Amino acid sequence: MGYPHKSHPRETPILSKYFGDPEARTLEGWKARGGYKALPQALATDPVAVQNIVKESGLRGRGGAGFPTGLKWSFMKLGDGKPHYLCCNADESEPGTFKDREIMRWTPHQLIEGCAIAAHAIGAETTYIYIRGEFTEPIAVMEKALDEARAAGVIGPNACGSGKTINMWVHRGAGAYICGEETALMNSIEGRRGNPRIKPPFPAVAGVFGMPTTVNNVETLAAVPHILNNGAEWYKAMCLGSPKSTGSKLFSVCGNVARPGNYEVPMGFSFKEFLYDLCGGPLPGRKFKAIIPGGSSVPVITIEEAEQVKMDYEGFMEFGTMLGSGGVIIFDDAQSMPKQLARLARFYAHESCAQCTQCREGTAWMTKILERIVAGQGTYEDLDTIFELTENMTGKTICVLSDSCGAPVCSGITRFRGEFEALISGKRSSTVAVTA
Amino acid sequence: MTDPKLITLTIEGRAVSVPEGTTILEAAKTAGVLIPHYCYHPGLKIAGVCRMCLVEVEKFPKLAPSCATTVGEGQVVHVYSQKALDARKGVLELLLINHPLDCPICDQAGECELQDYTFQEGRADSRYREPKRFNPAEDFGGDVMYVTNRCILCTRCVRFMEDVAGDEALCVEERGDRARIGIAPDHDLSHPWAANVIDLCPVGALVSKDFLNKARAWELDRTASVCPNCSQGCNVTLETRDGNVVRMKPRSNADVNQYYMCDEGRLSYQWINRADRLETPVVAGKLASWEAALAVAGAALKGASAHVVAGPSLSNESLWLLKQAAGTGTFRVTRGAEAPLPGVKDLALRADRAPNATGAELLGFSRADQPLAGAGKVVVIAGDDCDGLDMSALSGADTVIFLGTVAPQGLPAGAILLPIANFAEEEGTFTNLRGRAQRYLQARPAPGMARAGWMALAGLAAAVGKPGAFDSAEAVFRAMAKAEAAFSGMSYDSLGLKGQMAAGAGVTA
Questions:
Q1: Rg of chain B's alpha carbons, rounded to an integer?
Q2: Which among A297, B135, B223, B393 is placed 20 to 30 Å from A105, CA to CA?
């Protein structure tokens, strides 16, 4: 955690070690804390060797999909004569997620170093750090840090004296959730409307400005210098669950919980201990009821399920949900699930880019049905319609926003059907909580 | 050029071989399967947004948008599998939830792809219980009205304006179900090719103000024709209701106009229907029979050296017969500003505002600013292209023979008037500025006793003792193809409905 509270003793603060430490923001301060050791070494190393270290470490994308990072880098065809680009996805628009914000806010140089190493590994001379428009403070911090790094020659035309060019720019988003989707992000960087693109071509073939591009999440890139400094074996050792999930992971915890905030734990950490020990359990007099563990796009699970989960990609999958971005949203027994899910659906309806029919119309329709149920005007058929609608909206569109609207809603109805039926039968109003 | 590599795949049980890089949607057409689609259009960039063309491809984890998926060797594609049908049924349901279902008052009804595919694959009922979204209709300028509520956001119009017309006038405004087509500030659809968005719109969202509420699609008869308004020779369909042309639409021809026609051409059709027509031959100010009129005209022409003024709007057939009956002469073409369509090679509203100047030249007629200048005792004026001609040049003429649809101002009182059909009332061919001879078919009856141009001129040829026994435009064309090197080897069969290049053509443009 580090900020606003001190880290919990059971955390493994690697990325978050200097959260809350203003001196870590400066170039000098960051160097004093062990920063910029990995970059000069990496620049002197063959890019493929850097890719291999990251592959070996088992680092997987922290933005949500969990794609192996080293493998993604290896898709970039080095020496093809085309300009390559690195895009750092700092859009962090997933509701419930606020880890990248803190990385940029407190340790901008950690990210710059990670970006620079990645840029070298994929043969990119230009990196765009695409930051969510609402992140005014992180944008200012990042800009300042980039100025410092440029002035000191850490990045620029002769990065760290290596003779290599590593240019890095902040690109500010304009407020669309969908611009966190990698192809929409690239359109946005190009100055177009932030609409996802059809794949193929994949970004590694034709990305930003039609050139080979890699898009990585902030947390993914921030982990890279640590892997290079301490070795792949060290990183791989941070693993309490599935061997396919390694390293430390930041979880943003929000909702009805005693101590919300960012927590960094090794992959495979017990979710039960995480919730009751690290996060301090429920608020006084309340009980946890449901959890969306990986940002608003993943299925909701019951607290009973959550207590059995090991916090890694495979562990969450076992209970039908996903690690996602690590945005843990907690609902306690005072909340109405239909009301919460209706609110979530409204978010997706608002943010749909309007390209694909299923998403444009489906998210709005689902919202209207849910809001009608919450208002006490629902029917039992509505629940069936929602399931069929979700089926219709899943796996059929350019990006997964449409799927992301249906996932929490349907999982919520499956697990808390009683609450929906109580509203439909008129036995309860939405303001009174119902236990499943 | 090497032949492209062929890929063999199976679509709905039928094996097809198509060039590498072909999309499944296009490959399916060769197998005789039309995969339902909205946003895809062969003339536009691929958007892949309507998700209507989803098909099942074996070994693919998800349904594939066939417009954006290229064929692979050995692929097995199911267009009508339950999974694919369910997905498309779902898309149709979603497209209709906010649609006003105002088919009874919608111009598109009867030629609407939303109607057609719903009928084919959609649900019979709706599960939608919520209020429908509403946005007022908007005048987009030019000939285009945007009925927002009917829009399915396929973005064909946006892509046409941006990529083909090169005028970024349209965009998608807003997000989610609030999205609609928006018009950029200080822009409207007055671009000379903008009305093509009406044809491109698969539903009734973009409608023609000119055609609004004029006719229902199912009341129309459709005839393949060629636009007579400039020398580009865009292939068109004339749509008639009860013999009146009410709309002209482009007919696709990859070598001439692809899928498009300009607004000026599209909207210049009212004259075809004009009622104040010459309907009966006139000799010395009196109505006459065709036989009598042709006899008088033939007697005057025979042996005389006639001054011939041809019309560049006459068919090749008429012009050739004119040459037989009276010899060659001159013609004048009305000129206007050129207006190219940037996204299509060699397509423009041409400066020559007549369809057959090239045909006239190939047949030996030549351009002149004042074709009547130097007129002698016997003058033949064939065609309606007479506006602004200096008729005083006819003061010394003993005999003036006029063949046209409306007698022009200033014609001597004793002129022999022979009523002929306009292009929509006869069959024939035009030769466009690149030398492509193209057929047009008869769309409506000629008024009164007016005869097809070729028939009237064949009569005149016979009256002066030349071969004139032709029973059809096709027969005239056959004779012309034998006699004229430019059209050598051509026939109506070889022209088909897409035309054929005349020999040695293209140099005169």
A1: 27
A2: A297
User: Residue ranges of chain A with pLDDT lower than 70?
Assistant: 428-436
| pTM for this model (two decimals) | 0.94
Pairing of strands B282-283, B286-287: antiparallel
Domain extent, residue A371, equals 337-424
Where does a domain end: B65, B91, B117? B91
**For residue B228, is it within any domain?**
yes
Q: In Å, how far is B41's CA from the nearest CA of chain A?
A: 16
Assess B129–A contact: CB distance below 8 Å, yes or no: yes
Residue A294, both tokens: 């990986």
DSSP state of B60: -
pLDDT attached to residue B86 = 97
DSSP labels for A363-404?
HHHHHHHHHHHHTT---HHHHHHHHHHHHHHSS-SSSSHHHH
Residues A265 and A126 in one domain: no
Which residue among B54, B62, B175 places its CB closest to the CB of A351?
B175
The pair of structure tokens assigned to B84 is 């694919």
A-proximal residues of B, 176-195, CB under 8 Å: 176-179
C-alpha A16/C-alpha A336 separation (Å) is 34
- Separation in Å, CA of B261 to nearest CA in chain A: 28
Instruction: Give the ipTM of the model, two decimals please.
Output: 0.93
Beta-carbon separation of A396 and B172 below 8 A: no
B172 contacts chain A (CB < 8 A): yes
Query: Is the same domain home to A314 and A384?
Result: no
Look at residues A334, A237, A241 and name the one whose alpha carbon lies nearest to residue A282: A334
- Look at residues A303, A332, A361 and tell me which one is the last residue of a structural domain: A332
Per-residue pLDDT tens for B484-497? Answer: 999 999 999 999 99
The answer to whether residues B312 and B195 belong to one domain is no
Smallest Cα–Cα separation from B495: which of B423, B428, B425? B428
Within this chain, do residues B426 and B482 fall inside the same structural domain, yes or no?
yes
Q: How far is A349 from chain B (nearest CA, A)?
A: 6
> Taking 50 as the threshold, does the pLDDT of residue B507 lie above it?
no
CATH number reported for the structural domain that contains residue A385 in this entry: 1.20.1440.230
Q: What confidence tier does B506 reach under pLDDT thresholds 50, 70, 90?
A: very low
pLDDT tens digit string along A186-215? 999 999 999 999 999 999 999 999 999 999
Given pLDDT bands bounded at 50, 70 and 90, which one contains residue B508? Answer: very low
In a domain, B105, yes or no: no
The structural domain count of chain B equals 3
A286 with A376, same domain: the answer is no
| Residue in chain B nearest A192 by alpha carbon | B171
- Do the Cβ atoms of A361 and B49 come within 8 Å? no
Strand pairing report for B500-501 and B436-440: antiparallel
Task: Determine, yes or no, domain membership for A243.
Answer: no
How many domains does chain A fold into? 3
Among B164, B152, B168, smallest CA distance to B43 is for B164
Tell me if B203 is assigned to some domain: yes
